[in-house]
Each structure stands twice: as structure tokens, then as C-alpha cells.
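BUG: 3D viewer hangs when loading the predicted structure for this chain

Environment: internal workstation, default settings.
Expected: structure renders.
Actual: progress bar stalls at 90%.

Input used:
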Amino acid sequence: MQNVAKFEVRGNVGSINIRKKVAYISLAVADNRQNDDGKWEEATRWIEVAAFSQRARSWAEKLTKGDLVQIEGDIRPNEFERNGETEYRTTLAIERHAVLTKAPRKDD
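C-alpha cells produced before the viewer hung:
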């Protein structure tokens, strides 16, 4: 049996940061939970995903803030040196993606 480390997220685009070899997309995800008084509250959780392939980067360039998207991909642990210290990060790398609903345009 093969082990897997995958993710799936559905949320609204908050920001898009296009760089030379990667595009970072920040997604707002609604997180409903009970508070200490037992009442349900909605909180926003922010999740950043990364588009490394040319196809995914091209797709990211067409997104606009507020678009509802669904993204699936690999969870990639990595480490690097910064200022003599080893830092550890987890990258959510896009493999499959879809726009579920486009955000309303300001001129609509």
C-alpha cells in the first residue's frame, strides 16, 4: 500500500502573488465552531496554496479576489537554512483546480 499526503480545500480567493516560478494563492475558508457559551460562530481561516506548474500558474493569473475555487494537491514538507537556522515549512502544492463561482465584477 502506498502512503499519500494530499489536501482538498474549497474557499474564496483573498490574494494572488505571482512570482517568476510560483504563484501563491491565499484562500479564505469559513470555519464554524462553538464558543465557550455553546453558541456557533463563523470564523475565517486563511490557507495559502502554491502553483508550481505552468498550467496552474496560468490558471492563477486569471483568478480574481472573491472567486470561489476548489483545489486539490500534494502536501510537501521542506526545510531550508535562513540566518544559520534550519526552518521547516509545509507547502500545499496545487495539482487539480477549478473555479466554482466567479466573484461579481464591480461594473456589474
